[in-house]
Amino acid sequence: MATSLDADTRPIIPDDIARIVVAPKSYTDDATIYGAFKWLREHMPLGIAQVPGYDPLWIVTRHADIREVERNAKLFHNADHNPVLNDQASDAFTREITGGTTRLLSSLTYMDPPEHASYRTLTSNWFLPGKISKLEEQVRVLARQSVDNLLSFDGECDFVRDFALHYPLRVIMSLFGVPPEDEPKMLKLTQEFFGVHDPEEQRPEMVADPVVAAKQWAASIEDFYTYFDRLSAQRREQPTDDLLSLIANSRINGAPIPRDEANGYYVAIATAGHDTTSSSTAGGLHGMMAYPENWAKVKADPALIPGLVDEAIRWTSPVKHFMRNATADTQVRGMDIRAMERLMICYPSGNRDEAVFADADRFDITRSPNPHIAFGFGPHMCLGQHLAKLEMRILFEELLPHLASVEMAGPPRLVETNFVGGYKALPIRFKKA
Ligand code: HEM
């Protein structure tokens, strides 16, 4: 259902800028997308995009506004409409196959209060910093194996394909309880799930379809469900101490967790749990190659690694947007936002907001404080943030002492996505220490 915005008195974003923000291809080129965000922050921090084929949208680009919208989860809902931006034809397809809703995946992202809190509570203890820090040794073993593997390349490799894609996948799948032999399947399905707009990630039989994005999204969710149904049943019969067992055996309102909600949980963890961390790990190395003074600093003082991790996550912002829906007439930044209007929360823009980050485009591991919003804000703030930071810190602690130098061996390539993604390739040349 398209909302119609009465734009008479409200700011309309120039067509070329609006198209850039919405188009998945723009996110393959930093100059294009960050140029558009910069223009918006300066001239129209809260404006309406009217791109043909899409619902009218408020585009939210300033750090303070993103936090304001996200903190108020009763006023700004995730699930009244699709929390992920699709064109209208794709949303119509999704409604057709679900019998009228855009909730194709029953994950936390597609939930609002009070349902959201009751499901988040099932695992929130597992993800607490105190619990996550106990995984340090287990994760370090995986980091060492990955570093050994990288060092076996003869001074040149693709840091993404040969390294960054695999380590976060290993970490989350081993904690989650997915057997190692199934990791390639999880990687492929995740690349299809987040790569619905990227011709290189689209299923051949769907490429030419006008709603390829929605169809591929649905197909990859179905494949995940088929896979996890089996694993979930196994863990109910024979629970172990992994995260999958925790979810499979959890109860909601006194009854076992329903199949769709269990599967929604699994899919969120099996996708968001590594793709994001891979991108920010690659971004950390890219940032240091692009701004080499950081390399010298962190080599001299490993205590800067936590700063490197936060800056890598800010600078890459692997999650590009989530959508919110106003539940009542309200105001943000003095603008009248009406009930049922949709807002696109642009995390990469908030993370380059000059009002918060000096010299915001610059990669600087000594940035302090670094109040980035790459993990979002408010009740939906990333469940896996402490795990993501722990695994990245350990990785750089293990990797950096083994590298004497590193440089780019070709241009990086980025995934075509306006949702979640980052590096597809990062060719490097390195000398071992
Ligand atoms: C939610 C970013 C790693 C699981 C989110 C959100 C963002 C995000 C922006 C939405 C927040 C909001 O709506 O306010 C990131 C980034 C990561 C990362 C940048 C890595 C650098 C992880 C990991 C896991 C994970 C490792 C799991 C192991 C989730 C889940 C949600 C979520 C389950 C939904 C939370 C909810 O709606 O309540 N993440 N994430 N993420 N993330 Fe992450």
Automatic annotation (TrEMBL):
Sorted keywords for this record are: Heme, Iron, Metal-binding, Monooxygenase, Oxidoreductase
- InterPro entries to which the protein is assigned, alphabetical: Cyt_P450, Cyt_P450_B, Cyt_P450_CS, Cyt_P450_sf
Keyword DNA-binding found:
no
Please tell me whether the keyword Oxidoreductase is annotated for this protein.
yes
User: Pfam families per the record?
Assistant: p450
* GO molecular function ontology, one term from the record: monooxygenase activity
| Similarity field | Belongs to the cytochrome P450 family.
What does this protein do, in the record's words? Cytochromes P450 are a group of heme-thiolate monooxygenases. They oxidize a variety of structurally unrelated compounds, including steroids, fatty acids, and xenobiotics.
Protein name stated in the entry: Cytochrome P450
Q: Which species?
A: Sphingobium limneticum
Which lineage is the organism of this entry classified under, starting from the top rank? Bacteria, Pseudomonadati, Pseudomonadota, Alphaproteobacteria, Sphingomonadales
